[in-house]
Amino acid sequence: MIKRLKGLYHLLIALFANLWFSFPGKKITVIGVTGTDGKTTTTTLIYKILKDARKRVSMITSVEAVIAGKTYDTGFHVTTPSTWQIQKFLREAVDHGDTHMVLEVTSHGLAQHRVFGIPFAVGVITNVTHEHLDWHRTFSEYLLTKISLLRRAEVAVINHDETRLYRVAMPLLYGKRLVTYGIHRRAHITPKTHAFNQRLPGEYNKYNCLAAVAVSDVLGIPFPSVKKTIVAFSGVTGRMEIVAVKPVRIIVDFAHTPNAIDQVLKTVRPQVPGRLIHVFGSAGLRDRTKRPLMGKTSAKYADIIILTEEDYRTENVDSIIDQIQQGIHRSTRVYSISDRSKAIEKAIRIARKDDLIILTGKGHEKSLCRGKKEYPWSDTEAVKRILKKL
Fold first, then answer.
1. What kind of architecture, by CATH, is found in domain 2-232?
2. Which of 33, 65, 181, 333 could form a disulfide with 214 if both were Cys (CB 3.0 to 4.6 A apart)?
3. Where are the domain boundaries for CATH 3.40.1190.10 in the chain?
4. Percentage of the chain with pLDDT > 70?
5. Which of 238, 180, 191 is nearest to 61 (CA)?
6. CATH 3.90.190.20 intervals, the chain
7. In angstroms, how far apart are the furthest CA atoms of the chain?
């Protein structure tokens, strides 16, 4: 009942915002990208492709918003901003003469009507894996919320290799124009039908590139231009970002779900001649059921795990660490250091020349939430500060 009342409140706010800014979404081609993982990279790549194709384009992602040629910080721990901010950005883009907007869309943004009133020309789903069950209650509810973006879009772009997603979505998308992409199953867009080279590491990034190719194909962007952008695209801040190479290689990544951790560790593991040291935690007041799964996934690849804080909010940080540790088998070497700075310093101190340290969970974010207060924080700056001290 409370959730329904909140939903009605958000809907009324969304309606008012659309009226105040005169429904700007109807005057621009909007591409929406959702999914558990890969949203930011895919959204940014689509933006780059359109920009390189000389389209007037803006975008909103969890890292930043680029609106009418100006860059904005989208705030602490925010992917899809408030409906008021979205409508304001859309109005600025339209008034600037932009023809396209690429929008990263979360399940919260969909459920809370933050994208109400936006007629999406293209909707994309990258994947749907375990996340946000604290809010959506069940995986099925989470899945259907994601699919709702495709249902409201004129053209639906979907990863055909995500078999459960595809099976559930198909009956709901009957009669809609559907474009599929994939690597292992037959699809409209594959590495064989659209061959390209990429700088981004890992198979999961190949999927992100294929999603961007599919959207570009729908929008009529010539593939030679698309290929040039993909091969030049070096990624997004805080996504598999190498922040140090000496005395040891250190990578920062935003991975904060079991699937994302699996993908990034699986990608870097073959490149590590020594030991893989993984530093991570799990956010407080968020999906608790994923915590042991994150520990289990890390232990598949990491030689040393250092568990630490990640926006524990009003939860007990040591309790969160204990829940993650429940999924880690006993043969893995584990340290529990609740202070993130000290955890990173520990990783650097025990690392050897051929080891690799990967810090996950924070990525591009600029704050740590402890209790009810946000403290300035950057994994990248923390690494630089500790290396300088040592």
1. 3-Layer(aba) Sandwich (3.40)
2. 181
3. 2-232
4. 95
5. 238
6. 241-389
7. 62
Q: Judge contact between 118 and 24, C-beta under 8 A.
A: no
Question: What are the CA-CA distances from residue 197 to residues 201, 216, 227, 241 (Å)?
Answer: 11, 16, 7, 19
The Cβ of residue 54 has, within 10 Å, a number of other Cβ atoms equal to 8
pTM: 0.93
Domain 241-389 has CATH 3.90.190.20: yes
Q: Is 5 helix (H, G, I), strand (E, B) or coil?
A: helix
| pLDDT value at 79 more than 80 | no
Pairing of strands 100-104, 70-72: unpaired
Can you point out the beta strands (E) in the chain? 29-34, 57-60, 65-67, 70-72, 100-104, 122-125, 155-159, 177-181, 241-244, 249-253, 276-280, 304-307, 333-336, 356-360, 367-370, 373-376
Phi, psi of 362, rounded to the nearest 5 degrees:
-110, -40
Q: How remote is the C-alpha of 157 from its chain's centroid?
A: 17
| pLDDT tens-digit series, residues 17-45 | 999 999 999 999 999 999 989 999 999 99
Strands 249-253 and 241-244, by their bridges, are antiparallel
Residue-wise DSSP of 281-302: ---TTS-STTHHHHHHHHHHH-
Beta bridge partners, 251, equal 242, 358
Alpha helices, DSSP H only, in 153-222? 163-172, 203-218
